[in-house]
Amino acid sequence: MAKAGSWQEVAKAKREAIAESIPQPWRIDAIPSAAEQRDVTGDYVHQWLSQEEIEITEMDAVDIVEKTSAGIWSAEDVARAFCHRASLAHQLVNCLLETFFDAAIEDAKQLDAYFAKHKAPIGPLHGLPVSLKDQFHVKGVETSMGYVGWIGTFQGQKGTGRERVFESEMVKELRSLGAILFCKTSVPHTLMSGETINHILGYTWNPKNRNLSAGGSSGGEGALIGMKGSPVGFGTDIGGSVRIPAAFNGLYGLRPSAGRLAYEGMSNSMDGQNSVLSVVGPISHSVASLKLLVQALLSQDPWLHDPLVHEIPWRHKCEQETIDLINSSRHGSEKLAFGILEHDGQVTPHPPVQRAMKIIKETLRRLNHKIIDWEPPEHKRGAEILYKAWVFDGGADIHSSLKLSGEPPVPQVTPLYGHEPFQGFSASEIAATNVKKREYQKEYMEYWNSTRDQTGTGRPVDALIMPVAPFAAARREQCKYYGYTTIVNVLDYTACTVPVTCSNQNIDIASPDFKPVSELDQDIMATYDPALYDGAHVAVQIVGRRLQEEKILAIAEHIGQAIHSD
Amino acid sequence: MAKAGSWQEVAKAKREAIAESIPQPWRIDAIPSAAEQRDVTGDYVHQWLSQEEIEITEMDAVDIVEKTSAGIWSAEDVARAFCHRASLAHQLVNCLLETFFDAAIEDAKQLDAYFAKHKAPIGPLHGLPVSLKDQFHVKGVETSMGYVGWIGTFQGQKGTGRERVFESEMVKELRSLGAILFCKTSVPHTLMSGETINHILGYTWNPKNRNLSAGGSSGGEGALIGMKGSPVGFGTDIGGSVRIPAAFNGLYGLRPSAGRLAYEGMSNSMDGQNSVLSVVGPISHSVASLKLLVQALLSQDPWLHDPLVHEIPWRHKCEQETIDLINSSRHGSEKLAFGILEHDGQVTPHPPVQRAMKIIKETLRRLNHKIIDWEPPEHKRGAEILYKAWVFDGGADIHSSLKLSGEPPVPQVTPLYGHEPFQGFSASEIAATNVKKREYQKEYMEYWNSTRDQTGTGRPVDALIMPVAPFAAARREQCKYYGYTTIVNVLDYTACTVPVTCSNQNIDIASPDFKPVSELDQDIMATYDPALYDGAHVAVQIVGRRLQEEKILAIAEHIGQAIHSD
């Protein structure tokens, strides 16, 4: 039994409080094991939902807003339906760190009253439930970020006067746009893992295949939205933390470039490390939903409230130019050009991911687009710059947060951070790393420019397409390679995941010809098991140059539709 | 006598080579002392110039390009005239570290041949001479940045293969726009001073009043352009280094926000310190010239060649909105609103600067604009964040550059950097400084937002106007306070200097009521001497929010014209 006041006890109390926050009628008596019920999405979860609730929660964010903004659905009904489904998701895959359903329903009632009075929506997100990774500060609830020692504090500090009062900038923007906030989702403590696990909740499982991880660090978002317990939510990404859970859960997830959306007032790990910035990005079932959210947020002039946001409103012209190219490509008069990277030279993708890349190439050819092999500056060199930035402080920040309660680091973070702080970087070493990063970015940029000679479009490639990870989703404690996502962070490029297919044990067979290029490559291929992976989502990412959100969303929509219209 | 191979000898050889690079017919026999000839601009320098040379060199950059682009003037004649006048400037105030007149004239001849063939200019800067601070790399010449140890190297390193070959990104842009590069100008070694002095050239004096400094660190640019030895040039600014020399020399100088213009491929001090970035900005005699250069450079899509530049083309709409407001203010239907800061609470401006601020206020009132007192978050707190960033590495970078030759630091840099490297900041301390900076920026941003309640325009203030320095120009070794400029760097705001008046010993009398707020305040006021300062230029700066270059240039032009049309 946990000692009184021990971190185990504090964690348990919080875990139980979360469980108890779920209304009695929404509780599930017996949760099946993964062996008993691998996939808990779709039909399985429907058993606890009414027809109306199913209709609401299976609707795309864009369509939900259309209905709430026309008074066809009440914000309250929508909020209740998602609170219910989120509660089921939590019980099945362990994804919520905070629930505030009562506040959400109260907010929804006020929106309904507003609508009744004005016969008009309050804003472009009127009545849309939005879930948030547990780095956002929301009034009335706490932010633990998975640290036991942060419970009852503001970012680990007591008596700041900000506890349960302060709100992150984007939270204020979402409220003023009419969104309904209703829960905050789980993260790996430290945030520095592609799996989601902490001592408060435990492990967050992938709802489509509960043998596998929901991804991380925005894994609670991935699992919740994958369960359709939320129509759209926000994660953050400093090495893949939006894209990995989006991909693992068959979702679209946007990693914008730094300075596009407001990060102001969010809790973070290693705050102030500014060589490679974490960014906030949306995750949802459709590109249209991502676009709805990004456009709405930019309409709030975030550059007037976040000193790190650049004044770049939503650029309709940039979006339209891309759409025009796509439309002309349908008649063969124009086309887009893509760089294709199937293997980064470090780790071989598992068979389902190889197949997804094959589907992508076939789709692009069918759409008359140009494909070129991507032969960029070595990705390994780029990724190593990022890994340095993650340990500039020798783990001082994360170990001090762990030490607050005495909890040990989870095994997913010890390879990078160990069990104790270590020697950090000097100012000169940090500066040298920053120069290396800029030089690498410049080299990559000029490589990208140089592809103009190969595309035949008069432009360099419009986007790069590559895997998000070498696996469809990671097995527990096996998320050990991040090179496919981290390269985007070191370049600060825009990237959006596109779900492509699902693992199929009958066709995704490991090649007998596989020759590992390294021990890591060998180890990662060894984690593939066709039967275990069967049914798991597989996605790729569309990568654009820095600050190309409009273009990349338009391309992701085009390709996503083409794949799924087959 | 200097020992063979000593730093003194290497410096002397370089100094003599520069002097000898000036064609014999352009040499001045006897250079008068400051006591004999305080002001060497205008009539004084005309004695060595032909009427045609005077006509060309006194012309604004915009008008020069108009003439070269219409074939009225040849690029060669223009280049020769500026090479001549720059040579005179150098002899009188010591401002050039590199001359490459032959290459310039050769380039000009090629432009003339192009024009003869195509009957059209090659680009928007066809035949415009542009001078560069000695941080830019230009093929055929070296970059010493004032360090004796950098002579014959590439940024202190030998055998890089880049010596005298590599060109900075902006240099390439300027060439492709049709500009003629002809010289590089002096800097204080280390770049970290508001005075320009190094062991190669010695001290750069203010041509309008040779008792005083030309400013720094872009002091060679300030002096050269002040002498009309160049129509427009580029400096850099991490604490005031564009604005201080612009102000001291009666010029317009733009400090854009970071990420607007390309810094890629320039040499720098403490490269890789990325908490507060140095930026590159133009200096000239008119706002129209600054705008010409900024617009031309943005037309080159610098974001495709510099990973730190944001994709923000010249925004005509933003400029036009400001111009529309200015035009309506003439009929009293609209107005602009300004925050006015006459004293930053730290150091009292000298009487000429106080009078310049008074002129500004009277001008704004006459133009029907609204003025509010600026009561921002304490500037001292902001500036202290910047001073930390300057010494993150404990002076390691600058001392290693000094050590290459064994030269000692000049007295202007020892207060900050001492004679030896010292304990630098840890990664955690750097991160904490970055957080403090972001919090300060946020606090200032919200103060700016809050002025909406006071302006009566429906907007917060359009700009802030304040001194550039507490003095019209600094006396030698007396440039000891930077708070008026550094606050802009820590906020990463856009700022443009506007020349207002000249010191007048008959009216700019120190107030007998002056009560110093500190010893520093006392010391700085003690450096004011009406007779010694007589004739010195006095400027103020117009400060806008981040990335507001279009707006601030439009306002600077409006106010500058109003002041000088009196």
Explained architecture:
Chain A has helices at 7-20, 43-46, 51-57, 61-69, 75-93, 101-118, 169-177, 219-226, 243-248, 287-298, 316-330, 351-366, 379-390, 396-403, 414-417, 427-450, 452-455, 483-491, 519-526, 530-533, 549-564, and strands at residues 96-99, 129-133, 180-185, 197-198, 202-203, 232-237, 252-255, 279-284, 337-340, 370-373, 463-467, 494-502, 537-544. With 566 residues, chain A is of the alpha/beta class. The first copy, chain A, has two domains: 7-304, Amidase signature (AS) enzymes (Alpha-Beta Complex), CATH 3.90.1300.10; 316-564, Amidase signature (AS) domain (Amidase signature (AS) enzymes, Alpha-Beta Complex), CATH 3.90.1300.10. Chain A has an eleven-stranded mixed sheet, with helices on both faces. In chain A, strand 9, helix 12 (351-366) and strand 10 (370-373) form a beta-alpha-beta unit. In chain A, helix 11 (316-330) runs parallel beside helix 21 (549-564) and helix 13 (379-390) runs antiparallel to helix 16 (427-450). The first copy, chain A, starts with 6 loop residues before the first helix and ends with a helix. Chains A and B meet through helix 16 of A and helix 16 of B. Chains A, B: Belongs to the amidase family. Chains A, B: InterPro entries: Amidase_CS (IPR020556), Amidase_dom (IPR023631), AS_sf (IPR036928). Chains A, B: Substrate binds at residues 191, 217, 238-241.
